[in-house]
């Protein structure tokens, strides 16, 4: 059975979603599936997040995670809603431990060597590098990868279609997180065509990069 992390590393992009109305979840799901990227991180930044996760998870054709997980109660709520993986903007031992109790993948955030080392001590091997661009971007990830060769990074924050391939060129980067494909305004207006096209275009960049760099 393919794990959530396998899905993430296969597709190389996690659409990061801020949604205000769970009634628009169906349109979002249609756009992602039609665009070839059946994967989403629904951030716990709005009250619509739990119902949105439930709606998308019930479809059966999407891998749905919960983002902006900052507390133990967030972990519990996301698991109850049906999330398959969790993403946190920072590093919290309590959150790491509760996710482990639920046996669910957690990708915590870290940007310094101290944070990465602490995450490794807690058994974490895949880290969200956030906010990527304002924390040193590609150069910072390259530098951190030297002392932590067993750690994989998912840069998020400032990643766009313009620099997507540059981040993927780093051996330690297994995927990126980004919201440009599923902007909040596009979800609110149910602009399925725009979301589908942006998703397709993003995946085209990924596949072109992979083809160009295939051994």
From TrEMBL:
Read off the InterPro entries from this record: Aldlse_KDPG_KHG, Aldolase_TIM, KDPG/KHG_AS_1, KDPG/KHG_AS_2
Q: Name one GO molecular function term.
A: 2-dehydro-3-deoxy-phosphogluconate aldolase activity
> Mind telling me which Pfam families this protein's record contains?
Aldolase (PF01081)
Q: Does the keyword Glycosyltransferase apply?
A: no
Reaction(s) catalysed by this chain, per the record, are: 2-dehydro-3-deoxy-6-phospho-D-gluconate = D-glyceraldehyde 3-phosphate + pyruvate
Keyword terms of this UniProt record: Carbohydrate metabolism, Lyase, Schiff base
- Which protein family is named in the record? Belongs to the KHG/KDPG aldolase family.
What is the name attached to this protein's record? 2-dehydro-3-deoxy-phosphogluconate aldolase
Q: Which organism is it from?
A: Jonesia denitrificans (strain ATCC 14870 / DSM 20603 / BCRC 15368 / CIP 55.134 / JCM 11481 / NBRC 15587 / NCTC 10816 / Prevot 55134)
Taxonomy, top ranks, is:
Bacteria, Bacillati, Actinomycetota, Actinomycetes, Micrococcales
């Amino acid at each position: 059975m393919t794990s959530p992390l396998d899905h993430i590393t296969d597709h190389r992009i996690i659409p990061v979603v801020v949604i205000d109305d769970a009634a628009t979840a169906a349109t979002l799901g249609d756009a992602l599936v039609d665009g070839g990227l059946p994967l989403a991180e629904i951030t716990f930044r709005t009250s619509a997040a739990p119902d949105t996760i439930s709606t998308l998870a019930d479809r059966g054709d999407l891998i749905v995670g919960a983002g902006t997980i900052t507390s133990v109660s967030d972990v519990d709520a996301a698991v109850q809603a049906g999330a398959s993986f969790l993403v946190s903007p920072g590093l919290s031992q309590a959150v790491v431990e509760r996710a482990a109790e639920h046996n669910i993948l957690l990708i915590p955030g870290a940007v310094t060597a101290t944070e990465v080392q602490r995450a490794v001590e807690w058994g974490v091997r895949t880290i969200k590098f956030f906010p990527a661009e304002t924390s040193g971007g590609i150069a910072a990830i390259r530098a951190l990868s030297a002392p932590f060769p067993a750690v994989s990074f998912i840069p998020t924050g400032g990643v766009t279609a313009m620099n997507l391939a540059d981040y993927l060129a780093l051996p330690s980067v297994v995927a990126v997180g980004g919201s440009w494909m599923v902007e909040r305004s596009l979800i609110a207006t149910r602009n399925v065509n725009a979301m589908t096209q942006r998703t397709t275009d993003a995946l085209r960049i990924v596949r072109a990069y992979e083809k160009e760099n295939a051994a």
